């Protein structure tokens, strides 16, 4: 869910500064911000992404990833994503976790909004994909960005992370159609 959030600053830090750690949100904060998880801006498959557009000032556009069920497998995947989110260093081609909420009945992760969805969506589901396909220059840019993100995760970051599930669904596309690696543990 995309929603406006004003209780925490997500401004980009100076390159040498460590990124702020993911913030723990209360379920009440996320319910209020998302209008009780309104289905108005619902998208995604395995996890639910919902939201409201951000406004100028101290409001930020983010996406909330919500588990459909809370079973042992989902709890383990949630813990992995939080752990990775806490340890991954800042890189333009790697998705950074901004916050999370964990209760007995809810598992929610807060990420920056990635406006152009996934590479999978753009190749197979986007309504105008035949009229306006991704050109070869853009595809090359996406491939190089994904490679830079994976190289950072595997070799260059402050801790080495193996992605284990790189696919077109885990390559997200920002507003300039640059690759951002996400979905660190989702099958």
Helix/strand layout:
Layout: E1 2-5, E2 23-24, H1 27-33, E3 47-50, E4 60-67, H2 72-87, E5 99-102, E6 107-112, H3 119-125, H4 136-156, E7 171-173, E8 179-181
Parallel strand pairs: 2-5
Antiparallel strand pairs: 1-4, 3-4, 4-6, 5-6, 7-8
Commentary on this structure:
- With 187 residues, this protein is an alpha+beta fold.
- The chain has one domain (2-181): Orthogonal Bundle (Transferase(Phosphotransferase), domain 1).
- Helices cover 27% and strands 18% of the residues.
- The chain contains four helices and eight strands; from the N terminus they run ββαββαββααββ.
- Strands 1, 2, 3, 4, 5 and 6 form a six-stranded mixed β-sheet that branches. Strands 7-8 form a two-stranded antiparallel ribbon.
- Strand 5 (99-102) and strand 6 (107-112) form a beta hairpin.
- The chain is globular, with a radius of gyration of 16 Å.
Task: Using brief descriptors, characterize the structure shown.
187 residues, alpha+beta, Transferase(Phosphotransferase), domain 1, 6-stranded mixed beta sheet, two-stranded antiparallel sheet, 4 helices, 8 strands, globular, disordered N terminus
């Amino acid at each position: 869910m995309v929603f406006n959030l004003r209780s925490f600053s997500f401004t980009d830090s100076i390159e040498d500064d460590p990124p702020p750690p993911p913030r723990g949100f209360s379920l009440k904060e996320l319910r209020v911000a998302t209008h009780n998880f309104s289905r108005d801006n619902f998208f995604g498959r395995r996890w639910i992404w919902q939201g409201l557009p951000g406004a100028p000032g101290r409001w930020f556009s983010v996406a909330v990833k919500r588990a459909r069920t809370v079973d042992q497998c989902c709890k383990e995947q949630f813990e992995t994503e939080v752990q990775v989110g806490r340890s991954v260093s800042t890189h333009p081609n790697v998705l950074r976790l901004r916050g999370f909420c964990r209760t007995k009945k809810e598992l929610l992760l807060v990420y920056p909004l990635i406006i152009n969805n996934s590479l999978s969506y753009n190749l197979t589901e986007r309504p105008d994909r035949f009229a306006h396909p991704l050109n070869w220059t853009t595809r090359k840019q996406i491939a190089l960005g994904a490679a830079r993100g994976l190289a950072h995760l595997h070799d260059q970051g402050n801790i080495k992370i193996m992605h284990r599930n790189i696919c077109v669904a885990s390559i997200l596309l920002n507003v300039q159609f640059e690759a951002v690696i996400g979905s660190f543990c989702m099958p």
